[in-house]
Request: fold
Amino acid sequence: MTEKVPQTFENHSKLDGVFHFVIFPVLALNAAHAIFLLFEGPSFASGLQAAVGIALILLMFKTRLFSLRVQDRLIRLEERLRIAPLISEGERSSILDGLSESQLVALRFASTNEVAALARRAVLEKLSKKNIKQAIATWRPDYFRV
Reply:
């Protein structure tokens, strides 16, 4: 089995080869060709082809966004469950309710030893997801991101 490169802030984002380098270019070329044909010889058929070409690109992006949104909701739940026992009961609701979805999603990379303190900082300093990720000392990889 191939060993995974250790994940860090610098390399944690990923591109899906099939999605980004096959599906999107093919659909973009199809839409561009259909739009070209529409301008070359306007007709109902060429207009429909252009509309379908554009709709396919929109569908591709929406399906990607839907899966990411579901995954973010799951990550949000996991992180709330992970952080809750690590902070005192008195501050639990203020911290967990004060964290935005993007902050919770960014906190998934923080080790268990630092996640509670970083969650406090995120709420108090209103840290962006990028700032949270940059503040992580011990990176906890997430290789399952869609």
About this structure: The longest helix spans residues 44-83. The chain is about 70% helix and 0% strand. The chain has a mean pLDDT of 92. The helical segments are 17-40, 44-83, 89-98, 101-107, 112-125, 129-135.
